[in-house]
Amino acid sequence: MQGYWLKNQKKPRCILFMAGWGMGPEPFFSLDVDGCDLFMCYDYRKLSMPDMTMFSGYDRLELIAWSMGVWVAAALFSGQEKLFSRATAVGGTLGPIDDKTGIPAAAFDATIENLDGAGQEAFYASMFDVQMQSEKFMDNRPARSLSSVREELISLKEAVERTGSGPDIFSRRIVTMRDRVFPARNQLRAWGKARAERVKWPHFPFYLDECRSILLLPPEQK
Q: Which domains does the chain have, with CATH numbers?
């Protein structure tokens, strides 16, 4: 697992961001998180805890986990919920490879089997429903080799099969209703309709102004 400081200005509040599969810091360089520092974890070929001593000087540490990062965060931080003043899951579930509560198994396997250059670009395109945002991502796509993202996807599948569903460590569960990767109906089944916050976002929502305002709520909210 790799980590990267997207913003490190010694603010009193820090966000630990667990990204999804196939990511790197490049698509997130433009994120506006004024008032917060932001540390990103990605590349889950080998799962390991980040060095939590990095965050010891902050007044508040918040967790935002997205896509497959939801399961990774649950697996790594099980029983350690008190590390975070707030923990938010976005566009992912605790059972990420599941026909009813995650990505359907056949779709997950097909992604592995068809993961050549064109297949990777098709997956990236499926994260968006607005062409301009898709183009912005592709202009800043992760600087990862095809072999590394394929190895990561296989490693994640093996880890999920070995470990099973993760524990619910989250205080917020945001369902991305226009999602073409994690079907919204499966997200709702996974979290339960009463506990889920529904937003009309695609799988990758981070270029939306509304996304920033919802994810970066003031500390006293949610």
A: 2-215 (3.40.50.1820)
